[in-house]
Structures are given as structure tokens and as C-alpha cells.
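fyi for ur records
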Amino acid sequence: MIEFKRNAHIEDLLLYYAKSYKDDSILKILKKEVNSTSEAEEFSLFIWRVVDSIHDDQENEIEVMSSVGNLEMLPDLEYKISGYMQSVGFYDIWCKVSKQA
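which gave:
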């Protein structure tokens, strides 16, 4: 499973949105890890979808994980995902997708 040891709230956030999107492919990636270029791109796109959802949920006052407003998680999310993608060798894909987001 993709783990963010000191930032378990990031794991919880990603699982929350993957389940809310009913995205079995992302759930499979989250249960193991990113292993290919196509998974790296799919995971990166998912992360940016989560960012958009966090903004939308705050604007619409939707409670997520016992909080209405999770914008404060965005710096942790970016930091942890960047580090993770670098550790699995797909940082270049994360950067490419991020520039297009």
C-alpha cells in the first residue's frame, strides 16, 4: 500500500476520493504502488482531480473527513506526492502532468 507514514491524513484523503469516484483502478494502485508509466500518469491525473475536488468541496461546504474545508492539506499533498513519485522513479511524469493540470 502507498503509505505516507507521518501524514496518514494524506492516505485517508486519497482513499476517500478514490472511493467517492468509484475508481477501482486507482484503488488498486493505492493498495500496491505505482509500477509503470501508465499507472504514474493515471495516478498523477487522479491527484489533480483530488485537488479540484478539495476546492469544489470547500466552495460547496461539503464535509470531507469531518471537516468542511481541507485546503490546508494541499501543501502536504503536493510534498508527499512529489517525494513518492521521485522514490518510485516517475517524478518526470508527475511534473509533466502537473504542468498540464
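The first helix runs from residue 8 to 21. thats all i got for now
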